[in-house]
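stage 2 :: seqdesign
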């Protein structure tokens, strides 16, 4: 894998939120892909964390976040640990909490969104794939003039699930430009307003859990201040 830094890319120091013998947890900046989408792309989170923190061995992502999404992301130390951590995700043993800003006023203070969606990475094959069940829980945290702050707990892990589900119920994420038209909304934000707030997963010893949280990203925090 090519992990040479891109001289044109800005320098980014990726903050460590937690570390043990099996994993590292990082505070992902928005605007970064987790893994390369093609062989020539090296300005990715995988490459950055291996440049900055991979001296003791290669680090592998246990899951993904969208390019725009900031916050908690879990990396494994070595392939064996990656497989174990990925299995926790597959077995739904990982609890994920996000903070999202969504357009409009979400009337129900808490609820579930159960809408099947297509889960795919290769878009050219999407029309041939069946929709899969998808479930998202949410809880309203605060109301602002033109948007709602919600805590989001995805139960399944479909691609772009949170973005799709809130667009489907008429409350797309602030900054959304893939599943909604920006021109339909007065609010503007430079990215989709989604932050991975908290991650909880079992210890590999089988005793207890690990919980890691990330403070709200600075740009989202400033957006709240601007609209207070």
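stage 2 :: out
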């Amino acid at each position: 894998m090519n992990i040479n830094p891109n001289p044109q890319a800005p320098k980014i120091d990726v903050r460590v939120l937690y570390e043990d013998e099996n994993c590292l947890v990082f505070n992902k900046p928005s605007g970064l892909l987790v893994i390369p989408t093609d062989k020539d792309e090296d300005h990715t989170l995988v490459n950055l964390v291996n440049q900055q923190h991979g001296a003791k061995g290669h680090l592998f992502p246990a899951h993904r976040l969208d390019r725009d999404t900031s916050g908690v992301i879990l990396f494994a130390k070595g392939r064996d640990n990656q497989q174990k951590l990925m299995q926790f995700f597959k077995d739904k043993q990982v609890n994920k909490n996000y903070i999202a800003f969504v357009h409009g006023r979400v009337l129900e203070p808490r609820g579930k969104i159960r809408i099947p969606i297509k889960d795919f990475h290769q878009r050219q094959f999407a029309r041939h794939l069946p929709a899969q069940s998808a479930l998202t829980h949410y809880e309203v945290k605060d109301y602002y003039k033109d948007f709602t702050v919600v805590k989001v707990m995805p139960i399944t892990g479909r691609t772009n699930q949170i973005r799709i589900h809130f667009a489907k119920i008429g409350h797309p994420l602030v900054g959304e430009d893939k599943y909604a038209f920006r021109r339909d909304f007065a609010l503007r934000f430079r990215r989709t307003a989604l932050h991975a707030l908290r991650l909880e997963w079992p210890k590999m010893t089988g005793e207890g859990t690990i919980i890691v949280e990330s403070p709200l990203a600075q740009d989202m925090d400033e957006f709240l201040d601007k609209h207070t």
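stage 3 :: structure notes
- The CA atoms of residues 118 and 131 lie 4 Å apart.
- Confidence is low (pLDDT under 50) at residues 1-7.
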